[in-house]
Amino acid sequence: MTLRIRVRAGRILWFSGLVVMVLIVIAPVFVMFKYAISDRASVVTGGMPIPLWPFHPTLEQFRGLAGTEQFLAAAVTSLQAALLSVTLSLAIGTPAAYALSRYRFPGVMVLATALISIRLFPDVVAVVPVVEIFTRLALVNRVLGVALAHSLLAAPYVIFIAMGVFDTIPIELEEQARILGAGPVRSFVRIVLPVALPGLAAAAIYVFLLSWDEFIFSYFLLAFGEQSTLPVILQKILSWTPQHNLLAAISVVLSVPVVAFTFLVQRYMQTGAMAGAVK
Amino acid sequence: MLAPAVIYLGGFLVIILVKVSVLALSYQGASGVVFPSAQHFMGLSENPEFREALTRTMWFTLVGTPVELVAGLVLAFLVVGDFKGRGLVRSVFILPLAIPAIVTAIILYIVFDFPGGHVNDLLRGCHAVFPFRLISTPINWRGSGFFALMVAMFGKVWRDMPISMLIILAGLQAIDKEQIEAARTLGANAGQIFLRITLPLLVPAMSTVLVLRSIEMWKEFIFPFILAGSYPLLATLIERAYHEWRNPNEACAIALVLLVLIMGSTGVVLYVSRRLKKWLVAA
Question: Looking at the 3D structure of chain B, how many domains does it have?
Answer without folding.
Answer: 1
